[in-house]
Amino acid sequence: MLYYLGPRGSFTEKAGKIFSKLISLPLQPCSTIYEIFENVDKNNAYGVVPSENSIEGSVTLTQDLLLEYDVKIFGEIDIDISHNLVGYDKDKIEIILSHPQALAQCRKYIKEHGWKTKAVSSTAKAAEIVAKEKDERLGAIASMEAAKLYGLKILDEDIQDYKNNKTRFILIGKETPNFNAEPIAYKTTIIIELKEDKPGALYHILKEFAERDINLTRIESRPSKKRLGTYVFYIDFESYEDEEGLFKSLNKNVAYMKYLGTYPVFGIEQ
Ligand SMILES: O=C(O)C(=O)C[C@]1(C(=O)O)C=C[C@@H](O)C=C1
Fold first, then answer.
1. Residue 269's pLDDT is what?
2. Any idea where the ACT domain is (predicted)?
3. Catalytic hit among 11, 74, 169, 209
């Protein structure tokens, strides 16, 4: 089974459909990202979750759960995200419902109209609620598919604050799946915690990558949640032959390291 953030018509479903073809598994909707991680971990299943967006940055819940749960990343895909205002009548709208990431990606547009906002579990859930409530004062930010599925009008198209909007989705699981297509690249993700807070501590980590000519594609810090001002670092890098050698050297300078996997990146036509 391949779990995704539902209901039907969410952007995660779009990514889910692609992964579902790639690993030949049926899709099953979940109502939260938490529920996806739970199902993947308990049922030895797969899940597709948003990991970062080109406007709003990290999906922080996904990042935190990658550290908490015993799951690995097995694939990655970037999806074009075009948000739409959906509902009944634009002039009557007072409150906009959507996923917090979508509300943030359309922050300027919402502010220009002076609407209030309400965060819900996904863009498709927002459309579903607006359709059920049949209240003209409500609008949703959602996909065109969601508008069609839930019988709402598309009142404005492509409303995100920056046009070239993309979200990166990852495939999570416990065991390496078989893919029936060729990737465009391979990547590795690790999470590290520095040994001590001293001058050059992060430099000594980054030096290991620089000396081996490894291209980092992301470095991001999240609070360690142990003490204010202490962090864990999420590092993505392009595939490298001698990972064992690299990890051995890194281990000398880190208090903790979690390997999230070396996985294929797919570039599927959308
Ligand atoms: O709400 C949805 O449709 C989702 O699939 C979630 C999500 C996200 O969490 O980033 C996915 C893509 C967009 O960036 C907006 C929302």
1. 64
2. 190-264
3. 169
pLDDT tens, position by position, 144-158: 999 999 999 999 999
Q: Which two tokens stand for residue 96?
A: 């906009």
Residue type, 109: Y
Distances (CA, A) of 18 to 4, 26, 49: 12, 11, 13
Question: Is 37 an annotated catalytic residue?
Answer: no
- Whether residue 89 is found in the same domain as residue 76: no
What CA–CA distance (Å, rounded) separates 243 from 54?
Answer: 28
Does some domain include residue 219? yes
Count of the separate structural domains present in the chain: 3
Domain CATH code at residue 239: 3.30.70.260
Report yes or no: 241 and 188 within 8 Å, Cβ to Cβ.
no
ipTM: 0.95
Atom number, ligand 1, closest to the C-alpha of residue 125:
1
Diameter of the chain measured on Cα atoms: 62
